[in-house]
Amino acid sequence: MADIISPLPGIFYRKPAPDKEPFASEGDRIEAGQAIGMVEIMKQFSEVRSEVSGTLERFAVEDAGAVNPGDVIAVVAE
Amino acid sequence: MTFKKLLVANRGEIAVRIIRTARELGLRTVLAASEPDATSYAAELADEVEVIGPAAAARSYLKTEAVLGAATATGCDAVHPGYGFLSENAGFARAVADAGLTWVGPAAGAIELMGDKSRARQAARDAGVPTFRGSDALTPADDADAIAAEVGFPLVVKASSGGGGRGIRLVTEARELQRTLEMARAEAQAAFGDPTVYLEQFVSNARHVEVQILGDGERVIHLGDRDCSLQRRQQKVVEEAPAPALPEPVRARILESSTELGRQCSYRGLGTVEFLYDPVSHEAAFIEMNTRLQVEHPVTEMITGLDLVREQLLVARDGRLRLNQQDVTFTGHAFEFRVNAEDPASNFLPSPGTLSRLDWPGGPGVRVDSGVVTGSTVAPFYDSLLAKLIVWDSRRDDTIARSIRALGEVRIEGVKTTLPLLQAVLSRSEVRDVVHSTKFIESTPDLLGVSS
């Protein structure tokens, strides 16, 4: 199991835009370096990437939820 | 329509600004606040606070039902939207009016008209406002190549539903046109839900000037002009009033035609007509009109002695202007500096945190509109604007000297701010001599990466 950690404080989004598909869903196979969401800090957006390949086990933060640096955003089963 | 209790549907410095004037007018205020903002400085000043949702603006400040629900739940009979968020949302303006509350702003129809940038351009032309060479809204059936050839290259493709510098693409030669149009339409659809675009002549080295208007639906007056050319990434950094180095015939034309535009669309409340001014050809032309209170309104207040929020509330309440054009006089020169929680030394990285020290300057001609006090938390969820420092003096040169003095007195600890950029900008001869353009900050490497 590997945790994907938020590097920044802000709002976590699972979709690139409200009417778009999510970056990834629970149960998806993801590759190292793949974006699984993004964090908005003061109107600037940064993608959140997985450092490992595996199965996206679960999200620990809801869509449009607040995050702090170091918070676990999602868990990946390697 | 008379009202006694005002919902302030915003946050930060502008919420504080609105609460202050409302209190002077004897109005009770309710702040619609997100959860983290329920303990903000604005919340402390408001008579009541109503929590409208969690941190994300999409789930609080942008949620029309939650904001309107806060107004009705607390017995408010008027709503002031401030700027940003729902301030230019025609559907929200209509919902407020339909609920029997007073909307402090123009009629929904005027918001819709000006929100559609190609229709707004047409309305401006009809009122005699100078516009750049350009096209109407382009449909895929139009012969874009022929229309573009008439406009001339370089040109910009603009999204009809864009605005505020968003949804604009530059085309330098004819063979790029079709590809750029396709991309611009796809982008406009994704960003604004509307693929409509139009073409407009491109002007390099232009300045941004704008006219403040105030109307009651029948009579419309102007409150002078401003210059907002000092920008970074199409976001204003420093503004001033009056616009310097603007030939008097150009000034007269934009003031008069902006007022006429307001008259022709039966404009009620405060509005800003924005222009690009080409200092080489001495031509000013319409860009867009903002149908709300503007961030930089204090520079107009400093040179007119008026309280624009008061005038806005009085027009909404009484339905008519109490001022005539000849009541408005202009004295001196004012600058506004936006103090943002961003680090200019690290590419303007946002810098949230807790303000351990916050000392503002004083002395004659110095005003601070702040959304924070010592100990305030600067949350990462919203715009980075902390406060605005506004400085007035009788002449532009003197205002620059006073501004350098005032900026030098500011002490902020706990977050990084854009103060070093503001100081560096003011010391430039280009700014003193008014030979800068809207690209000046971005094209001057010495100004980027400055640190204290």
Automatic annotation (TrEMBL), chain A:
Pathway assigned in UniProt: Lipid metabolism; fatty acid biosynthesis
Signal sequence extent: none
Gene3D superfamilies: 2.40.50.100
Keywords per UniProt: Biotin, Fatty acid biosynthesis, Fatty acid metabolism, Lipid biosynthesis, Lipid metabolism
Biological process annotations from GO: fatty acid biosynthetic process
Matching NCBIfam families: PRK07051.1
Record-given protein name: Biotin carboxyl carrier protein of acetyl-CoA carboxylase
Organism from which the protein derives: uncultured Arthrobacter sp
